[in-house]
Every structure is written in structure tokens, then in C-alpha cells.
Design a protein that fits this description.
The structure is a homodimer of 478-residue chains.
Chain A (H helix, E strand, L loop, with lengths): L2 H19 L15 H5 L11 H12 L11 E2 L8 H13 L10 H18 L6 E5 L2 H14 L6 H4 L9 E7 L4 H10 L6 E4 L9 H13 L2 E9 L11 H11 L2 E5 L24 E4 L1 H4 L7 E5 L2 H8 L30 H36 L3 E3 L7 E6 L7 H17 L4 E7 L2 E7 L7 H21 L1
Parallel strand pairs in A: 1-11, 3-4, 3-5, 5-6, 6-7
Antiparallel strand pairs in A: 2-8, 7-8, 9-10, 10-12, 11-12
Chain lengths: 478, 478
């Protein structure tokens, strides 16, 4: 594409984006589309000859927008919100333009050194010790996979790197531990590492859905006695269902005593630690062997960017470093080549967007926004608590509110589940807000996750009004 | 960031990008920077308060550009070229703006269905059978890891998903096979899967660096007799060092007979198959169980985008699917949720850039460019062959030329290695072109990889002139 053509369409697209960013009120967060509808509108065969850029951009409004779930929409309250801010979008434009592969220092000194510096800034903001070394991956799932691989590599006496696991009759069975509410990526990491589902033991939680340390200790004792070798414990700071915060200090003590790798999944909740009065969420994490936090979740960086910190980068390196001749450089002894610390060799210039976002908002600007999200969630929790037909289903330590409708005349749990499932469907069918759900002790629970960079009080208020209105409608239908 | 502020800086950045894209001649491909120099210029502590976007953008020229290795530069000839085209950059702007997570159909119908459609287009362009189902990951390393995990899951009788591998006394040792020239990501995949280095057996190559099928057969026989269970064979179409193409038809026959998963690594070379007269590169691949091709390598899509095709998506799904309650949707039975087929849950809207690029260039437009790259490589190979002081070190089936200086008066191999290492250093120290190297049978070899969307004959000619000039200078110094 000739640069002048790029300039023309680039300006056109910037105007489209700026118009879009200023018109969320005119867009619904969820699309009105059925499975297969977009596919049916697209050609089955690839284009033989090139098409004008004008036509391609026109298809954004014609084909893509009607099929979009708008994650950046201020009324997106599902899952955990991933919202990309303006400076993040600008940085991604630049990253796609420069397009380096940050595998080696030599292959892009700027990407390597900016990754080191921004991750050290973030470490300071989260109050983590200087001994924590960081690396960027795409997703928390990939980060935790690397953490578990390091935990396995740390079992020096088993010589995993050399000999692997299958068919070695002298090896013990290996196990990893986490609360019942750990994210499914923990199980997936165990699967790919070859631990199997049997190699994952889930630990019971207390009434606030936090891992019970004494249950963990009991499981470790029981498993050791039965010949298992504990390999890793994962504590979660902000579980996906309810943002419960496992008691990391007590878990860390157990891990230290038992000599087991402690990983902390703070993918969502970790960001809160940059707010002075919320720093407590990472209490005890200075003892973790590794910790993951996702700036693409609650730090306004566009997808994807997950950060793994570890006190033991040399173990991670030992698990993965394999330098082919064609990747050797003259600087290998004096620099950090991030490809040595994991699976992906192709590494985007992700540091740029973290740099832009941290600088544009500043530490204080980010703290102001996160504090506001927590305030909005507390306010919504108060509204739920005060309403006779709703009840809160879990504590609200951060910015997620778990609740359900519970009208006085409905006492049967199955009926309540059906009612709340219908309620969620009715709410999302308005397409004006998007909430998601979970199940707690068999109960269907609505989740309202607040964390979008564009989300204000009026948006949360609107969500709450829609929920109430839809419940009234459902009850009237009966 | 208010939309009008985004508009202002967006336009400013578009002009910066368009100016940059039109001024490669004024930029050197390699930076003049020593390790740590960028770090030293950056603040050690994070910014407390927000900074004006104007200052942040100004730092691109001040701090980032002097530390950039320009992968998009027409004179970048190192590794394999990853070059991002204009339509790819525009698509990334949009992807960062819309910022959906393509984990579920519900979480972004547009991303899911566009991924299905564009991967089917690409499949048709590469001449792969309709039975090939595709999924997007970030890098070939992650793709091959998933392929090997599927190969392991296919060993039904071993119940890997349920019981894993460690400490199961009834399990056989597992092994994977590939040529000595397989990419290091194959070894890394085996490491994370828990096969260990012992679980990887490298097979000898012929004089053209292609896996020798009879050596593979011999290895399989020998290993089975010794109690190993073969799990996967990887054939490479376009090895990283020399772009040799393994004889897939013969390998496929062995894999079929031996009932072993066949994976094909065509991360770079696979794209060539869209050129009618180069379609032969994927001959036999219709029998593969899985195949990887990277549009971010030789298809002008910005990093990152790797595609895994497999005839057995249900095996991949069985290896990884774990659906947490909070991710269940009403459409689960009628749609494809790509998160079910792998580790990453956070999935960017990558289909957009493949869609833009395939449409903007069209099948024919892409074929014209790839054909020209191959022509340029053949021309350079001819220049090398015709020059008395240089020699080609490997066949040039595609667009990579492997060669070295070999003046008549230098016959000692060690001296030749030192000379060629100095030559590469001298060439790259001009910073005007960037070549990389490999070692073949102990010999230091220069690699000139041609594949940039902006690379023309004059750029290759310039590289060849610099190489000759630097050799003359080195020889004169002696």
C-alpha cells in the first residue's frame, strides 16, 4: 500500500474511531445476531483480485459492527471487563507499524528495554519487592502455564528437562493445589504439562469463598502420605466468579514450610494494589514464587498483555532456554533475550502500550479510576442489599457485585435458579447492558463487573434499573 | 482520553506513520545502540501524574526510534522476515479499538465467524483439503505446542487427560521425531509437555538438508523395540536455517503405517503454496494430522498471527476443553467457542487483519509478491554462484539464500568461519542491511531472507553490493 494511500485511509479510520468512541450511547453493547448470520453474508471463496480499501472499510459498518459485542462499551459488565483506552489504541497503531519481533535484544533493543523498564514501574506501583523479575505474555492462561512449568523444573532431583515424565518408574505422582474457585486456566496448564486431571486437587473454601489454609495443609499431608509429590500451590487474588481473595500470608507460610512453589493468580485483582488503600490485596505476595497480573484487564491496556513476575527467573529460563545457532547474537552474554523464558518466539512490541497508558494516566490517574470502580461497586452492592427482592450472594471486596433476585414468594431454590436465569437472559436481551453469571453452591448468580475506562455512575445506575425493570416484567408475566 | 483528544493525536500519529512508511530510505535497518542505553534514558520510577500525549508521542522519535530494529524495512533480510502491510496496520488500529475477547461466540460473534471464514479462505488458497479445520494462535511455537498436545491426547489407551504421566508405572516412554533442522519450538513443546529432551529424537538429513525417511523408519523400529511409544513426527516445509523441504509424502506414508500423528511445520514455507507454480511445497500435506502456517511471516500480516490447521479438531478439543460455569452460554451447542481448543482464554480479534490483507491484495496480488521474492532469491543465488569469492551453501527452493565467502586463498575451515563471522558483523555494522546466520555441518553461513512487502530488486542488489564491498575491505585489511 503506497504511503499516501495509507495516509488517506488512516485519517478516514481515525475519524471513524473518534466518532465511534464518542457515540457509545448510540450503540448497544450486545449485537442482535444469530449464529451463522455473519458467515452467511461473507463470500465462501477467497477474493481473487485486490479490492479497494474504501470497500473494505465500508464493510466495517455493514458487516462487522452488527456482529460486535462491545467490550469497550461503558455498559459492558460481563466476565471481567477488558477495556482499551485511547493511549492504548495509539500505542497499538505504532506497534503494528514498527512490527518488531521482541524475541532477542538484538531483534529489537527498544522492545526489550522498554519491557524491562515498564514492568519495573508496574512492580513498584503494585508494591512488589525488587527481587521480582517480569516478562510479558499474551494471556493469564499462558502466564500460569509458564509458572507451573517453572514449578516443575524446580524439582531438581527429578531431572524433568532431561528425562520428562512418561514411563519413568522411579517418579512420584505430581500434584498441584488451588481453591475450588481457581480459574480454569490452572486446570488447563496442568493438562498440558501432563499432570492430568488427577494431578489437580481442589481445596475447600470458607463461607467467603476463600481457600481454607488448614484444608490445604490437610491435603498436602494426606497426599504426601499417599506418595504424591506436591509441585505447586496457586492462590487467587480476585477469583473469577466472585473476586474472593485467598489468604496469601497463611498459604505462603505453608508453601515455605512444605517447600512448594507458590503461584499467585492476581490477573484481575492485582491491579487494585496500585491504589494505596487497596494495596492490602497483595499482602503476603512478596513470598510468592510467581505472580500474574493482566494490564489488559483492569489497567486500560488493549488486549493482549499479561505479566508474569517471578523471584526465580533462572528456573523459568532453565525450563525453556534452547538457543538455536541462527538466534545466537554477539550480545547474548550482556543482555536479556526474552525468548529464553518461555514458549513463544514471536513476541509483539507490547511494552509500548503499557508505557503509553502508565504515562498518560500516571499512577494517580489510574488509582482515581480504580477507586471509582470500587466505589461504584460498593454503591451497587448497597442498592442490592437495600432492595427487598434482591440479595447479594458474595462479599464485594473489589469491583464485582454478585447478586440474585429473591422475591419473598419464591423460596424453592430450583425455581429461584430458573427465575434468575430468565432474568439474566431478559437483561441481556435488551442489548443495552451485558452482565454474566456464575453458580455458587448450586445457585445461579448474576455478576456485574465494573472496570471499564469509560464506565460512570450513570451506566451502573442504568444497569441496575434494567435489572429491576426486567424482574418486575418477569414477575408480572407469571 | 476524550474522543476529540484521540482524534487530534490519532491524526498526528497517522501522519507520522505515513511519513515513516515513505522514508525507509532515510532510516537504517539496525540501530546504533549498546545494551542498556535506552534503559538509562528512562525514569527509574513510574510517572506519578499523567503526562500530555504530546510529550509521549515526541518520545517516539527521541527514545524509541534510535533503539529500533526495523523489521518492516525493505532491507531487513534476517531470520524470516515478518513485515506488516498498510491494510494490516489499519486492521490492527480497528482491532485495538473494538478490543473484543474472541474466546466465545457470544463474547464476539464477529471475531469468531470472521476467524472461521478467513481461515477457510486461506485453506483454499493453500490447496488444503476441506477436512482441515483452523484456529488462530499468536505464534508458531504455541501452535506446535497445541499440535503435540493433540498428538498425546490421541493415545486413547493412555488416558492422559485423566491421569497424566508422572509416576504411572504402566506407561511407556513417549517420543517425538523430526529432522535435525526442526525449529527449536518443537523441542520447547516437548519440554513443556513433559517429554523431556530424551523424548525428542532428531533424524538425519540428506545432502539437501531434508529428513531422510528411511532414517525415520529405522528410528521408529529401533525405539519401538526398545519400549518407546512414538507419539508424533514433525515434518518441516521450509526449515529455519535453509528452507529445506522435508519429503512429506514419504513421511506421511510412514506415519500412516505406524499410526503416529503427523504435524507439518510450514510456518514460513506454507504461504508459498498460494502461488500456483509453488503449490508443490505442500505436496503430501493433505495426509497431515496438523499443519501450521504463519500469516505474520510471509503474508504481510503484522505480528502476531499463527494458524493451526488440523483434521482432528475433536482431539484438540478433548485435550483442552474445560468450561467453567461463568463461561457457559445459551449458544454453546450451536456455535464454535475457540477457547475450547487451547490454552489461551484471552484471544485478540486477529481475523480482522487477515481479512483486510487477503481482500486488499487478493489471491493474485499475494501470489505476484511471493513469486517476486522467489525470483529475487534465485537472482541473488545466481550472483553468488557466479562470483569466484563466494559459494552457495544450500539449495534455494524458496526465498532464502544461504552462502558464504570463500576466497581461493583461504582453505582452512576454521579460518573460513572466522572470516564469514567477521563479514556478517561488518555487513550488519553498516546498519544499512540486516542479514543473519546459521551453521551447516560446522560451517558459518550467511542467510539472506527475502520476504518483506516493501523489498524490491534494488534492495537485494544493495545488500549484495555491501556484502562484496565488506569482504573486499576485510581481505584488504589482512
Amino acid at each position: 500500500m503506497p504511503p499516501e494511500e495509507f495516509r488517506r485511509y488512516g485519517h478516514q479510520l481515525i475519524d471513524w474511531i473518534a466518532d465511534f468512541l464518542s457515540s457509545y450511547d448510540a450503540h448497544r453493547v450486545l449485537p442482535a445476531i444469530n449464529p451463522g448470520e455473519l458467515r452467511a453474508q461473507l463470500p465462501q471463496a477467497p477474493p481473487q483480485t485486490g479490492e479497494p480499501m474504501h470497500d473494505i472499510l465500508a464493510d466495517i459498518d455493514r458487516l462487522i459492527m452488527p456482529a460486535m459485542t462491545h467490550w469497550n462499551h461503558p455498559e459492558f459488565f460481563a466476565y471481567f471487563v477488558s477495556s482499551g483506552s485511547g493511549p492504548g489504541i495509539l500505542a497499538e497503531m505504532l506497534s503494528a507499524t514498527l512490527n518488531p519481533n521482541a524475541m532477542l535484544w538484538k531483534s529489537c533493543p527498544a522492545a526489550t528495554e522498554l519491557e524491562q523498564v515498564t514492568l519495573d514501574w508496574l512492580r513498584q506501583m503494585l508494591g512488589l519487592p525488587e527481587t521480582f523479575w517480569g516478562i510479558m505474555y499474551d494471556s493469564a492462561s499462558i502466564s500460569i502455564m509458564h509458572a507451573l512449568a517453572a514449578a516443575r523444573e524446580q524439582l531438581n532431583d527429578l531431572a524433568m528437562r532431561e528425562h520428562g515424565m512418561a514411563g519413568r518408574k522411579e517418579l512420584p505422582r505430581l500434584r498441584v493445589y488451588a481453591s475450588e474457585h481457581v480459574h480454569s486456566s490452572f486446570d488447563k496448564a496442568a493438562l498440558i504439562l501432563g499432570l492430568g486431571q488427577a494431578g489437580v486437587r481442589k481445596i475447600a473454601v470458607d463461607e467467603q469463598f476463600r481457600l481454607r489454609p488448614e484444608a490445604l495443609q490437610h491435603a498436602l499431608n494426606e497426599d504426601r502420605a499417599a506418595g504424591w509429590r506436591p509441585m505447586c500451590v496457586t492462590a487467587t487474588v480476585g477469583t473469577t466468579s466472585i473476586t474472593s481473595i485467598d489468604p496469601v500470608p497463611a498459604i505462603a507460610e505453608i508453601c515455605k514450610r512444605e517447600n512448594v512453589w507458590l503461584h499467585v493468580d492476581a490477573a484481575y485483582g492485582g491491579s487494585a494494589a496500585l491504589v494505596p488503600e487497596l494495596r492490602w490485596v497483595l499482602e503476603g505476595c512478596e513470598h510468592a514464587d510467581s505472580l500474574v497480573v493482566n494490564p489488559h484487564k483492569w489497567l486500560f491496556v488493549p488486549l493482549d498483555l499479561s505479566v508474569l513476575y517471578t523471584r526465580k527467573p533462572e528456573v523459568l529460563r532453565r525450563a525453556f532456554s534452547l538457543v538455536a545457532e541462527y538466534l545466537r547474537t554477539a550480545q547474548d552474554r550482556e543482555v536479556e533475550n526474552f525468548m529464553d523464558y518461555g514458549i513463544p518466539l514471536g513476541r509483539r512490541f507490547r511494552a509500548l502500550k503499557l508505557w503509553f497508558v502508565l504515562r498518560y494516566f500516571g499512577w494517580e490517574g489510574l488509582a482515581v479510576r480504580l477507586r471509582e470502580h470500587v466505589r461504584l461497586a460498593q454503591q451497587l452492592a448497597g442498592w442490592v442489599d437495600a432492595h427487598p427482592e434482591f440479595e447479594r450472594m458474595a462479599p464485594t471486596p473489589l469491583s464485582l457485585v454478585c447478586f440474585r433476585a429473591h422475591p419473598a414468594h419464591v423460596q424453592n431454590e430450583e425455581e429461584l435458579n430458573r427465575l434468575n436465569e430468565s432474568l439474566l437472559e431478559a437483561v441481556n436481551n435488551t442489548r443495552e447492558v451485558f452482565l454474566s453469571h456464575t453458580k455458587l453452591n448450586g445457585r445461579f448468580v448474576l455478576r456485574c463487573a465494573i472496570g471499564g475506562v469509560r464506565t460512570e455512575e450513570r451506566h451502573v445506575r442504568k444497569a441496575w434499573e434494567i435489572v429491576q425493570k426486567q424482574l418486575a416484567r418477569l414477575l408480572a408475566l407469571k
